[in-house]
Amino acid sequence: MSGVATPVVEVKAPETPAYKAKAYAAKSATSGLATFSVPRRELRPDDVQIDIQYCGVCHSDLHQVRNEWQNTLPTVYPVVPGHEIIGRVAKTGRAVKKFKAGDIVGVGCMVNSCGVCENCRAGDEQFCVNFPTLTYNAEDKILGGVTYGGYSDSIVVREAFVLRVSDKLDLAGAAPLLCAGITTYSPLRHWNVGKGQKVGIVGLGGLGHMGVKFAKAFGARVVLFSTSPKKIADAKRLGVDEVVISTNPEAMQKHLASFDFILDTVSAEHDLNAYLLLLKKDGTMTLVGAPEKPAPVAAFNLILGRHRLAGSAIGGIRETQEMLDFCAEHGITSDIELIKIQDINQAYDRLAKSDVKYRFVIDMGSLK
Which among 209, 210, 203, 198 is positioned nearest to 315, based on CA atoms? Predict the structure, then answer.
């Protein structure tokens, strides 16, 4: 989950848990991840206990394990990452109505929110004015202490934040949909991307490749922007209509004032103005990548053409379920590399070098 800041809170001491789950945790920014046990709460009436089968590895996991967001989302150690969770229901509380034991389910970036603010009531829990409870590294307002994520064999989550996953989907490939999928699906839906539109995707990584898949599924003409000619062949395999090498001024010039929508998935520093110039009148550029430093934007690149520069963060629970259903209907999953939990530290080193096509997913059956 990129680009979301949370207030620093005093974390209350945890209560006695109902059981301990096996997990992998980092005990410091430099320790790497290793075996750990985490507290899970006793089932409340509206709780669902899930046996985790797969968990995707998000770039934000790497950032938080290494405390690279210490100015906006400082890491509380030990930290158990993971917010792209797929598993089966093990038990349910007595008031749970939507799920039963054996159901395939998912859990994304949030496990709770206030439920009463304007944004929560509108189905945008990710923008809860009291801030949603993140799946890991957040104050656990129920059990106390901090929340622990999906690099674990089990988790307990409120029914309202559990998602149904179709058995039509490859479950390992479905895991990244819970973050990378909804992060790109939501802005494309919000800005009504569809047939007859020209859409740009900036960057072909974990987010970018999902943006390409959704934009194509919505019927748009898709142009990928990349700094690497090595991405051209794979972009074509994914269905991209054209690839523009963004370091080539002449190639960029050919697309001036021609895009209805641009989705920028890049978290490295780059020039936003170069892309704003490519928007049509009333065109929109939405950021889902989160560069560490502020990016300068020339006011005239917004004024001349009535351009919009927007941001987007994951999606609400209702929209995430809509996305999962859409993926089941259209056969969309993430391109993944399945790994064992014992290989997670090497995977982090590779992720830091962008050496993965396009998401790592942990087979939690390897957690013994």
Answer: 210
